Automatic annotation (TrEMBL):
Pfam families: Ribonuc_L-PSP (PF01042)
Database matches in InterPro entries: RutC-like_sf, YjgF/YER057c/UK114, YjgH-like
UniProt protein name: RidA family protein
Organism field: Pseudoxanthomonas putridarboris
Listed CDD domains: YjgH_like
Gene3D superfamilies recorded: RutC-like
Amino acid sequence: MTKRDVVFPAGRQALYERNRYSPAIRSNGFLFVSGQVGSREDGSPEPDLEAQVRLAFRNLNAILETAGCTFDDVVDVTIFMVDPESSFQAIWDNIVPEYWGNAPHPTVTGIGVTWLYGFQFEIKAIARLPEGAGR
């Protein structure tokens, strides 16, 4: 097996090592980002939902930047939400436009779940690596 080309954002490597997964892997011109939640530095959930979602996007952006990408390079997104019926519209209207930018937007799959390890929102993404960003 070839060695995985793991991308670690600054300051969070211990959190990933403790939980035994990679934040992102570069492979064949793409960056595959693990689900990002609104965790504080110690790994605990941000209690306010909108603040938690913003923090999840900031955590995603930290990984993208470390790999030489921006959100414009994201081609596919999967979001997981606890109780999407009561929270989806506020998140989609108030927070997502801050990060999504202008059309064309990435493809999106939204999944309602009953448990996210104490979190209310998680986002995972696939981005294309720009030329020169390590392929």
